[in-house]
Structure formats: C-alpha cells, structure tokens
Amino acid sequence: MNSVRDEVTLREQTEEKSKTVWEEERFRVPGIVLGAVIYAVGINVFLRPLHLYSGGLMGFSQLFVTLLTRYTGFRTGSIDLAGIIYYLLNLPGIILAARYMKRRFVAKTIIAISVITVLLTIIPIPAAPVLEEKIANCLIAGIMAGVGIGLVLRTGASDGGVTLIGMIAIQNGARMSVGKINTGVNVVLYGICLLLFDIPTVIYSLIYSVINSVACDRVHTQNINVQVMMITKLEDTVPLEIEIMGAMHRGLTRMSATGRYTGENESVFIMIVNKYELHKLLSIIKEYDPAAFLVVDEGIRVEGHFLKKLV
Fold first, then answer.
1. pLDDT tens string for the chain (311 positions)?
2. Beta bridge partners of 172
3. Is the CA virtual torsion 277, 283, 284, 289 positive or negative?
4. What's the CA gap between 53 and 121, in Å, rounded?
5. In the chain, where are the structural domains located?
6. CA-based end-to-end distance of the chain
7. What is the distance between the alpha carbons of residues 40 and 38, in angstroms, rounded to a whole number?
8. Which residues lie below 8 Å from residue 294, measured CB to CB, with a gap of 6+?
C-alpha cells in the first residue's frame, strides 16, 4: 500500500509541474470570457435600468455609485463606476487567494474579475428597461448573470466577491458554504436597500438574486456530488488505482468480491467525485477496463471527510 501511495504522490507532483496542465488551462480562458460577457450584459442591459441591486460585492458597488450620485451629483457620463469599485473591493480577496490557492486558480480568477470589470464599465446602461414588464427584465437578468457566473466557476476560476472568499474558506477546510456566506452578505445589503429605497426595489432584487443562484447552480456542476461504483475483473488493479488517485486527487475504496453466478473473483471500487470530474473518471476507467460495470448516482449527500473541489 505504501508503494501505491508513493506512486500517487509522485504522479500528483509531476502533474502540478507539467506544462500540459497550463496548456489545458489556456483553453478555459474563452469560457471565462464568455461567462463574463453573459454576466455583464445581464447586469448592465437588463438589471441596472430597473435600478435593482445584484447581491454580494457587486450589489454594494452599485449601492455606493447610487449614493455617490444622489448625494454629491458626481457623474462620469457613459462610464459606470460600479465595475471599477467592484475590482477594488476584490483586491483583498485576490491577495488571500494568492496565499492559499493554486497559482492557476489565481491567474484565471484575475482574468475573470478583470474582464468583468472592463465589460461592466464600457457596456452602456439603457435609459429605460429593455422590456415593458419589470418581472421579465428581472428574470432574464437573473438567468443571464447566473449562467455567466456558472460558466466562470465551471472553468475552475472565480468571479470574485463573496464567492471568492467562500471558495478560499472551503478549500482550507472551513465548515461553511458559499451559499450561506452569500446569504449573510445579502441580508445586510438588502436591509440597507430597505432603509434607503422602497419595498418593491428590495422584492425585485431578491427575485433576481434567487433566479441568479438557481441558474448558477445548474451550470456549476462542481456543486453536484456523484457516487460511482465500479465492478472490475482486472487481476491487477494497481495501475488503475494510481491513475485515478494521481490524476483526480481523489481517494477510493476497494473491496474484494465474488460473482454469485459466475464464481469469478472481482474488485469493487466506490468513489465520490463531483459531476464536473465524472467525465474524466469514466474516461480513465474505460481506458483500463472497457468491460467494467459502472453504477453512477448523482446528487447524493456526503457527510464526513470529503474535499469539495470547487476549483
């Protein structure tokens, strides 16, 4: 068993230093840019004309611009300050990420936040809502922003804000979720909005926030846990075990079994991964044993020591 552990450790260290890893990350940059574009269009074109507020740090950035304009009369013409303020608020999170997270995650996150900032700054905000129905604009904004953020998260990056802080906390073993942190921040944000504005503004902002979260979770498959049970008749399963644990940085459990009908010796493996990792796992299994019997169960609840790999 120690030899397997040593082989897995060597495999992980080699992969982390490999140029191939960084070459693969380059192909994720278009996904980051696409997600940023969808998010920015949803916010500036459909949400901002309604004078509603996104959640998290973006919401606080919008609120700051509103108060600045209302009480000082300061305006910047076609340039919107919310994106720039959002970037400044993210600097502490980027510094923390550089200290506690992998370099490729930090690099992709800086790209994501930078692109989002530029787009939010240059995309013009319509003077009037695009659609007549306020709720329709709200729903489209929520769906677009959620899908955009989900695409960014799916590439193994972060769009910044509360999400970034939550991901750093989870990766370092904190017993919390990004959703709970977001909820706490949004309670404060919408509480301030309730004091400063009317109730409909808060209600429509909450509707947007809920739709945003649902759409994001549908796209961000790293949030979905999957149990995979594999039954194989391979005599030597060590190469397969090393490849799975080394390439995916996941553990697995092996049990010896006997086919009740055939009387043949078999090995049963149980693995827990997220849905984003599932394709890679199945590819590895098919490469070593195309005849392996697989059972996949999605959306399971996991308690105990399980690393939530959101990046």
1. 556 666 666 665 565 555 555 566 777 889 999 999 999 999 999 998 998 888 888 888 888 888 888 777 666 666 678 888 899 999 999 998 888 888 888 989 999 999 999 998 889 889 888 988 999 999 999 999 999 988 998 888 888 888 888 778 776 666 666 666 777 788 888 888 888 888 898 899 889 988 888 888 778 766 678 899 999 999 889 889 888 888 777 888 999 999 888 888 999 999 988 877 888 899 999 999 999 999 998 877 777 667 666 55
2. none
3. positive
4. 16
5. 13-221, 224-298
6. 29
7. 6
8. 228, 229, 230, 231, 282, 285
Strands of the sheet with 253-258, listed across from one edge: 253-258, 265-274, 225-232, 293-298
**What span, in angstroms and rounded, lies between the C-alpha atoms of 222 and 171?**
13
* DSSP structure string for the chain: -HHHHHHHHHHHHHHHH-HHHHHHHHTTHHHHHHHHHHHHHIIIIIIGGGT---SHHHHHHHHHHHHHHHHH----TT--HHHHHHHHHHHHHHHHHHHHS-HHHHHHHHHHHHHHHHHHHHSPPPSS-SSS-HHHHHHHHHHHHHHHHHHHHHTT----HHHHHHHHHHHTT-S--HHHHHHHHHHHHHHHHHHHS-HHHHHHHHHHHHHHHHHHHHH-GGGSEEEEEEEE--S--HHHHHHHHHHH----EEEEEE-TTT--EEEEEEEEEEHHHHHHHHHHHHHH-TT-EEEEEES----SS------
Distance CA 291, CA 49 (A): 57
CATH number of 224-298: 3.30.70.120
pTM: 0.76
The residue with tokens 């509603």 is 52
Distance CA 292, CA 74 (A): 66
